Amino acid sequence: MTPTLVRHHAKTGASASVDTGSRARDWAEIQERMLAPLYEAVYRRLEVGAATRMLSLGCGSGLALLIAAGRGARVTGIDTDPERLALARTRLLPDPGGDAGPPDAGPRLLDGVPATATGHEPYDLITAFTPIGCSADDAEDLVGALGSAVSLADRGSTVVLTGWGPPERCATAAVLGVAARLAEGTCSPGAGGWLGARRDDLEDVAFRAGLKPDGSGRVACPFGYADMDSAVRGLLSTRLFDAAVRATDRSQVEKEVAQALHPHRRRDGTVWMPNVFRYLVCTT
């Protein structure tokens, strides 16, 4: 599945809105779809369908859930970002303003940690589609979340972990390096929003969470944008540049991200960056 190039006309710069609601919309409308090939590849490999009871950790604005539900899976998503979760509700729930709904009645969207996903038939698939290897804390946070989530699953259930591929296979890595450079000196190493993937990141998380690796794969996920403005807004919606914005200001970050993107701008004005993402299939 190739990312669709979507054009957004709001301007970047100091005058641009920086509220979290706008950033969540940028994520949902521009950036989230870039990982759709990863979701599709995992679901095909695992034959996700009507018999699947899936728990998604960090479900964001719900695209991965929507694709799984379209294959017939019963899905539950958890996230701590209320703006992204609100957008997921508009995508998945008949009554977005209502509660999460009774267990097994349809998609469930919950604000908080895995412990809130109780009262449901045990899950047989847990997914963590937010790629680790971005900051010093993301692996630690995922280990903690998995500790709670695994207790809600059947023994022998499948867990999928995801991460960035080798930096030399990810054109976006150099652009994300801007985040670390601008935040340098203001926070601990790796806490600036971009750390870079290491070869055994996923296996290390699996080991610490008590999971058994059972296969892996790589998926091409090119980041494609209709124009430079969409590319900058999409990348900033990932939250990987937050520390850089705090250390400088949004206008400076936008300017330097645009400069880093320049080599990836094509003659027609679109921006295209080939990337590879990795996933690890584990069992509980």
From TrEMBL:
Q: Which keywords accompany this UniProt record?
A: Methyltransferase, Transferase
Residue ranges constituting the Methyltransferase type domain according to the UniProt record: 55-92
- Superkingdom: Bacteria
Region described as Disordered: spans on this chain = 1-21
**UniProt entry tagged with the keyword Nucleus:** no
Which molecular-function annotations from GO does this UniProt entry contain? Answer: methyltransferase activity
Can you name this protein? Methyltransferase domain-containing protein
User: Organism source for this protein?
Assistant: Streptomyces laculatispora
